[in-house]
Specification:
heterodimer; A: alpha/beta; six-stranded mixed β-sheet; 11 helices; 36% helix; B: mainly alpha; globular
C-alpha cells in the first residue's frame, strides 16, 4: 500500500464560497525535495492544507501512498506537517508538546518520550526541551514545530515556510536534515519564499499563482519549457571579448554582455547547444581558456521571475 | 483505498482516547474560567454556611432530617441542576473546539492518526469528568453543609438514615447531568461559531419545564434528571404534572441520547476544516 510512495492529486479544486483557493490541480509528487513557490495568495498554504486534510477539496481526489487523505488513521502515520501557524497549546514545554502529540498517535508514554527526545535532539532543541514554549525564541518555536512534525518518523514531510525565523546556522542544519530525508527516499514538500535556499535544496519545483499551478517538475525541465525567455549561459573564460565577437555570428544569440567582474560572458540564446559547440570550437581552434560554462537562469529565482514576475510580493 | 484495521485497532483507539482525555483534562483546570466555575458552584455552600452562622440557634431548633431534605431538594433542583450543572457543562464543553480554533492549535490533533470521533469522545470525556468533579464536589459539600445543621443527629442520619444513599443519588444525578448536557454543548460548540444564543435558548427551554405538556417535557434533559432525585422538589400552582419515567428507562434513555448526540458531534467533527484566518 505504501511501497509506491507518492502524493497524487487528481483535478483538485478548493473554493471558499466564491473565492478560489486552488483550481484543478493534478500532479504527482514523488520522493525527494519538492519546493512550492508563489506570491502571497497563490494558494500554496491551501494546497498544503488540502494535501494534509486540514481542508477538504471542493472537488477532486488526493491520495498519499495510495491511501485516501480522508483516512486519517492511515495517512497521518505516513505524514508529518510543520504548519505556518506559530501557535502552541498554553503552558506546555517543548517535550510536553511533542510527547503529547505522540501519545495521541496511540504510543505508550515511554515510546512517546523516547521519540520526542530523538526529534528534539534532531532539531537541536534537547537542551531546552523542558523549558516552556512561551519562553522560546521564534527560531526555537520553529524548531519545536519541526520536531513535532518529525517525531513519528514520517515518510512524507510537509513544511510550510520551515526556514522562517531560523538563524543561518539553524537554516543550514534544517536544510541538511531535509536533504538527508530526501536521500532516504522520503517525500519532502517545502513551501518557502527564500528562493535561493529553495534553489539549493530542491529536486523539483511547483510554481503557483492565483490558485493555479503555473509550472511543475525538475527545475531544469521547467526552465526548458519556458520558451519565450532565451536561456542565459555564463561562460567564464580568459578572453570574453573574443567570445562575444563570435557569438553574435550565431543565429540564436539574443544578447551577450561581459560579466561585471570582466572574467566572463553572459550570453542569452535560444539554442544553448549551438553556443556550447561554439565554445568548444574556440577552445580547440583559438586556445580560449574556459573556466566554467553554466546556465545563469536555470534556477528557481529566474523561473519565478519569468513565470510569475512581479505580480505580488514573493512568499 | 482504505487501510484495513489491524487486530489491535480498538486497543490503539482506546489508548488514543485516554491520551486525548488526559491532555484535555489539564486544560479544563486552568485559567480564569475555573475561578468563575468555582464561584458558581460554591455559592450554595457559601449561602448555607452563612445562614448557619447567622441564624445558628433558630436553625438548630427547626432542623429535622425531613425539613432539611426538602430544603436540599429545592436547592438542588433550582440552583444546582438548573444553573450550576447547566452552565458548568456549558463553559467546559462548548469551548472544546472553539478555543483551539481561536488559539490556532486544533491542527495538532487533526494531524495525528486518530479518528475525529475518538478526538471528540476524548474531549467530551475530559470536559464531562471535570464538570462532574466540580459540580459533584459542590453538591456533596452543600449536602454536608446543610445536614451538618443536624448537629449530633447528623451522624445518625448518615449511619442509620438515608443520608448516604441520598447523597450518592444527588451526586449521581449531577454526574448524569454533566455528561448529558456536556454532549449537547459539545455538539453546539461544533455546530455554531458563536453558540451562546443556542445555549440561552436551551436554558430557557429547560427553565419552563414545569409549564410544558407531558409530551414536550420528554424533550428536556431536566425532566429525566428530576425523575431520578430522591425527593421531588415542590412545583408551583401553574405546573403541568407528568408521571416521571422509570429510573432504569431514564438512565438507559439518557445514555442513548448522549451517544446519539455524540455521534452527531463526531459526524460534524469529520467535516470540520481548519481555516483559522476566517474563524
Amino acid at each position: 500500500m505504501t511501497t509506491d510512495l507518492r502524493i497524487q492529486l487528481a483535478e483538485v479544486s478548493k473554493f471558499y464560497g466564491e473565492v478560489l483557493g486552488v483550481n484543478r490541480i493534478s500532479m504527482v509528487i514523488g520522493p525527494g525535495i519538492t519546493s512550492l513557490v508563489g506570491p502571497n495568495g497563490a494558494g500554496k498554504t491551501t494546497l498544503l492544507n488540502l494535501i494534509t486534510g486540514l481542508v477538504r477539496p471542493t472537488q477532486g481526489e488526493i491520495t498519499i501512498g495510495g491511501v485516501a487523505i480522508g483516512d486519517a488513521e492511515a495517512v497521518f502515520r505516513l505524514v508529518g506537517y510543520c504548519t505556518q501557524y506559530d501557535a502552541f497549546p498554553h503552558g506546555l514545554s517543548g517535550i510536553e508538546l511533542v510527547r503529547g502529540v505522540l501519545t495521541v498517535h496511540g504510543m505508550t508514554t515511554r515510546t512517546a518520550h523516547e521519540l520526542a527526545c530523538e526529534a528534539l535532539s534532531t532539531v537541536g532543541l534537547l537542551d531546552a526541551a523542558d523549558k516552556k514554549i512561551a519562553a522560546y525564541s521564534k527560531g526555537m518555536r520553529q524548531r519545536v514545530k519541526l520536531a513535532q512534525a518529525l517525531a513519528h518518523r514520517p515518510r512524507v514531510l510537509i513544511l510550510d515556510e520551515p526556514l522562517n525565523g531560523l538563524d543561518p546556522m539553524a537554516r543550514a542544519e534544517v536544510i541538511a536534515l531535509l536533504r538527508r530525508m530526501a536521500t532516504e527516499g522520503k517525500i519532502v514538500l517545502v513551501s518557502s519564499h527564500i528562493l535561493h535556499e529553495v534553489d539549493v535544496i530542491s529536486d523539483s519545483v511547483i510554481l503557483m499563482n492565483h490558485g493555479y499551478v503555473v509550472a511543475e517538475g525538475g527545475i531544469h525541465d521547467v526552465r526548458g519549457e519556458v520558451e519565450e525567455h532565451p536561456f542565459e549561459v555564463l561562460v567564464r573564460c580568459d578572453r570574453p571579448a573574443l567570445l562575444a565577437s563570435r557569438v553574435f555570428a550565431l543565429d540564436h544569440t539574443v544578447e551577450a554582455r561581459i560579466h561585471a567582474d570582466g572574467r566572463g560572458l553572459v550570453v542569452a540564446t535560444r539554442d544553448p547547444a549551438a553556443l556550447y559547440r561554439l565554445v568548444n570550437r574556440l577552445a580547440v581552434d583559438d586556445g580560449l581558456v574556459i573556466e566554467t560554462v553554466q546556465p545563469a537562469d536555470d534556477d528557481v529565482q529566474s523561473l519565478y521571475d519569468y513565470l510569475i514576475g512581479h505580480e505580488g510580493g514573493r512568499s | 483505498m482504505t487501510a484495513r484495521l489491524e487486530p489491535g485497532a480498538w486497543t490503539l483507539r482506546l489508548r488514543q482516547l485516554l491520551a486525548v482525555t488526559r491532555l484535555e483534562l489539564r486544560k479544563c483546570f486552568r485559567g480564569r474560567r475555573l475561578l468563575g466555575l468555582a464561584l458558581l458552584n460554591l455559592a450554595p455552600v457559601a449561602v448555607l454556611l452563612l445562614g448557619y452562622f447567622v441564624h445558628h440557634q433558630e436553625v438548630a431548633r427547626a432542623a429535622t432530617p425531613a425539613s432539611l431534605s426538602q430544603v436540599y431538594a429545592v436547592m438542588f433542583a433550582t440552583w444546582m441542576l438548573r444553573v450550576s450543572v447547566f452552565f458548568t457543562a456549558a463553559a467546559l464543553s462548548i469551548q472544546l473546539f472553539r478555543t483551539e480554533v481561536l488559539e490556532k492549535t486544533l491542527h495538532y490533533y487533526l494531524l495525528a492518526p486518530v479518528r475525529r470521533e475518538v478526538m471528540v469522545a476524548g474531549k467530551y470525556l475530559s470536559a464531562s469528568l471535570a464538570s462532574s468533579l466540580i459540580c459533584g464536589a459542590s453538591a456533596a459539600a452543600a449536602y454536608l453543609a446543610l445536614f451538618g445543621q443536624l448537629g449530633h443527629g447528623m451522624g445518625r442520619f448518615f449511619a442509620e438514615g438515608p443520608g448516604v444513599p441520598h447523597l450518592l443519588a444527588y451526586v449521581g444525578v449531577t454526574v448524569i447531568g454533566c455528561f448529558g448536557y456536556g454532549a449537547v454543548f459539545a455538539l453546539l460548540g461544533l455546530l455554531w461559531r458563536n453558540p451562546m444564543l443556542a445555549v440561552l435558548a436551551l436554558f430557557g427551554w429547560e427553565s419552563v419545564l414545569f409549564l410544558l405538556p407531558p409530551a414536550l417535557k420528554a424533550a428536556t434533559v431536566l425532566f429525566y434528571l428530576e425523575s431520578l432525585l430522591p425527593h421531588r422538589p415542590p412545583v408551583g400552582p401553574l405546573a403541568i404534572l407528568a408521571d416521571p419515567p422509570p429510573v432504569l428507562a431514564t438512565i438507559a434513555g439518557m445514555a442513548v441520547f448522549t451517544l446519539v448526540v455524540l455521534a452527531l458531534a463526531g459526524w460534524r467533527a469529520r467535516r470540520m476544516e481548519i481555516s483559522y484566518s476566517t474563524d
